[in-house]
Amino acid sequence: MDNIREFSLSTEFIYLFIYLFIYSLTNLESYGSLYVCVRASIYSHDFMG
Fold first, then answer.
1. What does the alpha-carbon distance between residue 45 and residue 49 come to, in Å, rounded to a whole number?
2. CB-based contact 26:34 (threshold 8 Å)
3. What residue ranges do the domains of the chain occupy?
4. What keywords appear on the UniProt entry (predicted)?
5. What count of other Cβ atoms lies within 10 Å of the Cβ of residue 24?
6. Closest Cα partner for 26 from 36, 18, 14?
7. What's the rounded Cα separation, in Å, for the pair 40 and 18?
């Protein structure tokens, strides 16, 4: 059951990433802020991990 839970979490992350990507495509003027948010999340993930 733990494997299924991990898979669901990774799937939710993928869906979230796809949603953010599509959102950035439909709102090109906010692509810069989206990039900053993504980089911040990556840096925070590396810091936590």
1. 6
2. no
3. 2-48
4. Membrane, Transmembrane, Transmembrane helix
5. 18
6. 18
7. 18
The CA–CA distances, whole Å, from 21 to 13, 14, 17, 43 equal: 12, 10, 6, 19
For the chain, the average pLDDT equals 74
Question: Per the structure block, which two tokens stand in for 26?
Answer: 């439909």
C-beta of residue 27 within 8 angstroms of C-beta of residue 41: no
Please list the rounded mean pLDDT of every run of 10 residues in the chain (49 residues).
67 85 72 77 71
Q: How far is CA 10 from CA 5, 18, 31, 36, in A?
A: 9, 12, 24, 22
Find tokens 């992350």 and name the residue.
13
